């Protein structure tokens, strides 16, 4: 089985059960997921760390051991609050982190797929074509401007 296919299937399954649960979070066992998808628990960890990050709109709480569990929480997105948090801590942002933020905006229906593709094109390392760290600084400024525009209520 191809890894990306497995990762996609696990991600899709978790998102589906999250969507079906009105509380906005789920509690599951890592071993149950690993059994369901016939994979190692480390592969579940990989999916959680790459597909369920804060930038993508999730918090994962984990308790290991015999009675261990995973609590996966889908975060709401308040653009002004998100913008304030982003600009207060980010004078640089990597392309991967920017892509995660844009994906989250799209998944939360705050932008269209086309808008997501346009934003990603603007923030792409080949478009910016600057040396590091200037490239990541410029990406952060551009993303902050995009978030400020999305937060405007007069548009």
Structure description:
The chain has 155 residues and is mainly alpha-helical. The chain is built from 8 helices and 3 strands; from the N terminus they run H-E-H-H-E-E-H-H-H-H-H.
Key descriptive features of the protein:
155 residues, mainly alpha, 8 helices, 3 strands
Q: In one word, what is the shape?
A: elongated
Strand/helix succession:
HEHHEEHHHHH
What fraction of the residues are assigned to beta strands by DSSP? 5-15%
Number of helices: 8
Instruction: Tell me roughly what share of residues is in helical segments.
Output: 55-70%
Number of strands: 3
Radius of gyration: 17 Å
Give the averaged pLDDT, no decimals. Answer: 83
Low-confidence stretches: none
Structural class: mainly alpha
What's the arrangement of secondary structure elements?
Blueprint: H1 3-20, E1 25-28, H2 30-36, H3 41-51, E2 58-63, E3 69-74, H4 79-89, H5 95-107, H6 113-123, H7 125-128, H8 134-151
Antiparallel strand pairs: 1-3, 2-3
Helix pairs in contact: 1-3, 2-3, 4-8, 5-6
């Amino acid at each position: 089985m191809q890894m990306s296919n497995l990762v996609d299937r696990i991600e899709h399954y978790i998102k589906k059960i999250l969507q079906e649960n009105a509380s906005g979070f789920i509690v599951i066992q890592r071993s149950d997921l690993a059994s369901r998808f016939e994979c190692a628990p480390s592969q579940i960890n990989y999916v959680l760390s790459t597909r369920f990050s804060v930038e993508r709109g999730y918090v994962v709480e984990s308790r290991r051991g015999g009675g261990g569990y995973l609590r996966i929480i889908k975060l709401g997105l308040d653009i002004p609050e998100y913008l304030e948090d982003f600009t207060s801590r980010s004078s640089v942002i990597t392309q991967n982190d920017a892509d995660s933020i844009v994906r989250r905006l799209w998944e939360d229906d705050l932008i269209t797929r086309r808008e997501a593709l346009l934003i990603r094109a603007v923030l792409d390392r080949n478009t910016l074509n600057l040396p590091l760290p200037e490239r990541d600084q410029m990406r952060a400024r551009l993303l902050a401007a995009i978030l400020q525009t999305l937060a405007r209520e007069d548009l």
